[in-house]
Amino acid sequence: MSLFKRHQGRGTTATMKNGAMLITVADPKNPVSEQFRTVRTNIHFMSVDEPLKLVAFTSSNVSEGKSTVTANVAITWAQEGKKVLLIDADLRRSTLHATFNLSNASGLTTILTSSASELDLNSVIQDSGIDNLSVVTAGPTPPNPSELLNSKRMTAFLDAIKPIYDVIVLDVPPLLEVTDTQALSGHLDGVILVVRAGVTQKAAVARAVEMLKISKARLLGYVMNDVDSSDAGYGYGYGYGYGYGSDNKK
Ligand SMILES: Nc1ncnc2c1ncn2[C@@H]1O[C@H](COP(=O)(O)OP(=O)(O)OP(=O)(O)O)[C@@H](O)[C@H]1O
Ligand SMILES: [Mg+2]
């Protein structure tokens, strides 16, 4: 049994072209969907008193499963009735428009490059087709993604959407490739590191964790993606590790 096509080597563009596989929509009773719900629940347990509102899934390198995990976990939040906004902040390898079959003519880059004094949220927030889930696609690829994500306008955008949604989930670039995620992490309530079983090197994970520490991000835990389970050959796990405890905002 295989729900996902196996990994096609480092840096595959499959998700960029065809979108991420939404198993949580296609087959909510599948054990993999259950694993995504477990990820959601564990994130909730990381901060019961003060719910985490703005979270991002990142990884060390490209193609480790960020977009797949991000979209599916966001869907599980929407499925439990939370009002969710999913934002494609991976401006170089964007996928959300393909995943949800939406236009990418305007998106995050549109609002970040606009010179209008007011933020026109309605022009970039799209209905995903799934109850409770709205989407902001990446928009046209800019020459300066890091600068845009690190801009005052990005801060203003996040401040404007925070009161409207219960959970805001960002699909962000890999830590060891570009500085975008480090720049963004100051705005986030928490970051989850996606590690691809059998692919991600230990040294890369250690370096990614170090970079999160430097940028004072709160690492909530990690998702072990593509775990080779005997019955399926894919899978997800959730854990806490690499020297981070449960409440270690540093
Ligand atoms: N558990 C899994 N089992 C098999 N294939 C998977 C699994 N998770 C992801 N993939 C596949 O691996 C590829 C990369 O996944 P995805 O696009 O979600 O990763 P990414 O980290 O967002 O990549 P990028 O760095 O390009 O943004 C896709 O073809 C996806 O279908
Ligand atoms: Mg991606």
TrEMBL record:
InterPro entries, per database record = AAA_dom, Bact_polysacc_biosynth/exp, P-loop_NTPase, Wzc-like_C
Query: What top-level branch of life does the organism fall under?
Result: Bacteria
- Pathway in which this enzyme or protein is active: Capsule biogenesis; capsule polysaccharide biosynthesis
**Is this entry keyworded ATP-binding?**
yes
**Catalytic reaction(s) noted:** L-tyrosyl-[protein] + ATP = O-phospho-L-tyrosyl-[protein] + ADP + H(+)
**Domain AAA, which positions?**
64-197
GO: which molecular function terms? kinase activity
CDD domains according to UniProt? BY-kinase
Tell me the keywords, alphabetical order. ATP-binding, Capsule biogenesis/degradation, Exopolysaccharide synthesis, Kinase, Nucleotide-binding, Transferase, Tyrosine-protein kinase
EC assignment: the record states 2.7.10.2
**What is the role of this chain?**
Involved in the regulation of capsular polysaccharide biosynthesis. Autophosphorylation of CpsD attenuates its activity and reduces the level of encapsulation. May be part of a complex that directs the coordinated polymerization and export to the cell surface of the capsular polysaccharide.
Family designation: Belongs to the CpsD/CapB family.
Q: What is this protein called?
A: Tyrosine-protein kinase CpsD
Q: Which organism is it from?
A: Limosilactobacillus alvi
